[in-house]
TrEMBL record:
SMART domains: Iso_dh. Its cofactor is Mg(2+); Mn(2+). PANTHER family: D-MALATE DEHYDROGENASE [DECARBOXYLATING]. The keyword DNA-binding does not apply. This is Tartrate dehydrogenase. Pfam families: Iso_dh (PF00180). It comes from the Bacteria. Residues 2-333 form the Isopropylmalate dehydrogenase-like domain. Signal peptide: none annotated. GO terms for molecular function: magnesium ion binding; NAD binding; oxidoreductase activity, acting on the CH-OH group of donors, NAD or NADP as acceptor. Keywords: Manganese, Metal-binding, NAD, Oxidoreductase. InterPro entries: ICDH/IPMDH, IsoCit/isopropylmalate_DH_CS, IsoPropMal-DH-like_dom. The lineage of its organism: Bacteria, Bacillati, Actinomycetota, Actinomycetes, Kitasatosporales.
């Protein structure tokens, strides 16, 4: 399996190189035949050459590197993130990665809430513009666009995945009282698709009230499905419930082609970039999601066990209350991973 690695900007360039040795070790141990190629797409290239996602990138990835690991994009020198939109939203839309799975396990719980975010349309459809009076925009429009085809294939995939993985409840998060056109389309399709999965109990909540209840008590929630912007916001709340953005990861998938992009939920964190203290847990969890996707469940489970154990030591990064660095934390993870893998080896006779 050939993997495209895009470290990106800021702490993306710190956490991604830090987690690659774990991927290599797991690849060797489980005989996974993994190889990767690093792509330098990001702010430096944009500032030097005005190139975000190079013109041949989508074809190259789709044919040769259908599995992508991305760090983060974002640079204070590019305040509107034009390069990040070009690269990140370009990959999500260009490869039709319409399912964004962002699981999060609230502290004190042993079960992840399975959040699914639609990843290509809605307020991210790129439809809109400004009308200027003089040099300043007087009117600004960003349209929320949803096609029935995308809502249907997204919800059907999510409900099937939830049902097959033994989930019992699914919540549709919407805002049909204030944003009625797309809201009602989502509700209509949700109800119709739910009828195909008799084991799933569905309910519908307004996004504002959902966020209120989620923060107060996440325990009733199981599967959650949301449109693009709502899912973006809920995933940062989910990260906070886990214990920080340094922990949460995401998988963006096109179920039809198998193309998939794995990344932390967090951004380039300019406030801590260059200090060596970024938490690589989320990037390593993105690797675990990638191993799950490729069908290497034991490799993913070993990595998750090592991460959870290392996070409880003083080598953890400051966001987790430790005194470690990106490097010392991953060294702790590697030690535990090596031990787990050696213990799991059959005894020689
Ligand atoms: P951010 O997620 O980068 O940071 C938010 C806060 O969380 C910061 O205080 C940061 O220090 C902390 N944090 C994030 N990741 C951490 C980690 N691994 N370890 C420890 N602390 C961590 O959000 P922001 O500051 O709003 O955005 C910075 C830039 O990143 C912006 O340009 C934004 O557009 C971009 N961004 C990119 C992505 C992406 O590439 N997927 C996601 C979110 C934001
Ligand atoms: C994320 C980010 C992106 C998004 C930004 C950087 C465009 O916040 O991956 O969560 O809104 O999807
Ligand atoms: Mn986000």
């Amino acid at each position: 399996m050939r993997i495209a690695v895009i470290p990106g900007d800021g702490i993306g360039g710190e956490v991604v190189p830090a987690v690659l040795p774990a991927l290599e070790l797991l690849g060797e141990h489980f005989g996974l035949d993994l190889s990767y190629r690093i792509f330098d797409w990001g702010a430096e290239r944009w500032l030097a050459e005005r190139v975000g996602l190079p013109p041949d990138a989508l074809d190259l990835l789709a044919s040769d590197y259908p599995t992508i690991l991305l760090g983060a994009l974002g640079d204070p020198r590019i305040p509107d993130m034009a390069h990040g939109r070009d690269i990140l939203l370009g990959l999500r839309r260009g490869l039709d990665l319409y399912v964004n799975h962002r699981p999060f396990t609230p502290r004190g719980s042993d079960r992840a809430i399975a959040l699914f975010r639609e990843n290509t349309q809605g307020l991210y459809a790129g439809v809109g513009g400004t009308v200027s009076h003089g040099r300043h925009p007087a009117v600004a429009i960003d349209e929320c666009v949803y096609t029935r085809e995308t809502v249907e294939k997204f919800l059907r995939y999510c409900l099937r995945t939830l049902s097959e993985s033994g989930r019992e409840r699914v919540t549709l998060v919407h805002k049909s009282n204030a944003v009625p056109h797309t809201g009602r389309l989502w509700q209509e399709v949700f109800r119709a698709e739910l009828a195909r999965f008799p084991k799933l109990v569905g309910n519908e909540e307004y996004v504002d009230s959902f966020c209120y209840h989620l923060v107060r008590d996440p325990s009733p929630y199981d599967g959650v499905v949301a449109s693009n912007l709502f899912g973006d916001i809920i995933s940062d709340i989910g990260a906070a419930l886990m214990g920080g953005l340094g922990l949460a990861a995401s998988a963006s998938v096109c179920p039809e082609t198998g193309c998939a992009l794995f990344e932390p939920v967090h951004g380039s964190a300019p406030d801590i970039a260059g200090r060596g203290i970024a938490n690589p847990y989320a990037a390593a969890t993105a690797v675990a999601l990638m191993l799950d996707h490729l069908g290497h469940l034991p490799a993913a489970a070993s990595l998750r066990r090592a991460l959870a154990a290392a996070a409880r030591t003083d080598s953890a990064t400051p966001d987790l209350g430790g005194h470690g660095t990106t490097g010392t934390f991953m060294a702790e993870v590697m030690t535990r991973l090596e031990k787990n893998l050696a213990d799991a080896r059959p005894e020689p006779h």
